[in-house]
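Need residues for this backbone.
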């Protein structure tokens, strides 16, 4: 049986796949990410005013993670321009657990047992198989997705270390880090101008609403992960979160009308089996 924490992280995986589908489902992903980031920033601002600040030792991680998240968001938008959800999402998410495990071993001196190590390999391998089976991946698309995966691994390790230095303030830590998301609408306005951000509010209210909802969902998704990183092994938490790719395949099939082969379903079973092994 999966632990209580594992079950919560699986719920975060579902949330994570959902907001990625919301982002991918919009025609203009940069515009959508800008409005998602506004929602995140608006929620984070009052939270940092109402909760105790994280310990001083955590602040370098907050700043570093915020900067990496900005790069991650830009990379994610670029990745979705090159690939559909069932391709870009698994490559990005599948490449990160092994990198997180390596980073946690190098910088946080974490170790994992053979079974959990096998589970992480199963999850990463299954996710990559989901992405690559029967699909042509362009060099630009693969590079964009792998770059996104590297940023995921980097911010996960940074946040895993930072939240443990926050003196028991995971939600305050998360809120301060999420303030960095204000950079996305600033970048959008700098590139396209203020009118490009505000004019569609009347013309495309459903797109705005979808983006705002995606931002709120993403807060819960990653907030849960940071909470779990306080005590859980970073590689295991990362791998369990990346089972979100199975949810992404389901969402892509049911709502975005993306084709799913039998081999891809088999890879999903491998990912699910790896998740179960993490609970043993």
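Answer:
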């Amino acid at each position: 049986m999966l632990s209580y924490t594992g079950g919560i992280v699986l719920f975060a995986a579902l949330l994570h796949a959902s907001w990625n589908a919301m982002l991918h489902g919009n025609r203009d992903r940069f515009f959508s990410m800008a409005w998602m980031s506004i929602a995140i920033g608006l929620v984070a601002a009052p939270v940092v005013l109402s909760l105790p600040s994280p310990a001083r030792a955590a602040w370098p991680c907050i700043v570093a993670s915020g900067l990496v998240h900005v790069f991650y968001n830009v990379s994610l938008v670029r990745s979705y321009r090159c690939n559909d959800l069932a391709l870009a999402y698994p490559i990005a998410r599948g490449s990160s657990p092994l990198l997180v495990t390596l980073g946690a071993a190098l910088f946080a001196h974490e170790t994992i047992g053979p079974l959990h190590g096998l589970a992480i390999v199963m999850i990463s391998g299954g996710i990559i198989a989901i992405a690559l089976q029967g699909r042509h991946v362009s060099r630009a698309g693969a590079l964009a997705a792998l770059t996104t995966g590297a940023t995921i691994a980097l911010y996960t390790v940074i946040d895993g270390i930072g939240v443990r230095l926050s003196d028991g303030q995971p939600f305050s830590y998360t809120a301060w880090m999420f303030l960095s998301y204000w950079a996305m609408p600033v970048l959008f306005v700098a590139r396209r101008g203020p009118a490009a951000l505000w004019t569609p509010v009347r013309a495309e209210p459903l797109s705005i609403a979808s983006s705002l909802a995606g931002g709120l969902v993403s807060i819960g998704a990653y907030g849960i992960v940071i909470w779990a990183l306080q005590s859980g092994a970073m590689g295991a938490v990362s791998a369990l979160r990346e089972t979100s790719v199975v949810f992404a395949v389901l969402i892509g099939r049911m709502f975005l009308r993306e084709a799913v082969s039998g081999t891809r379903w088999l890879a999903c079973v491998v990912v699910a089996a790896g998740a179960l092994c993490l609970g043993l």
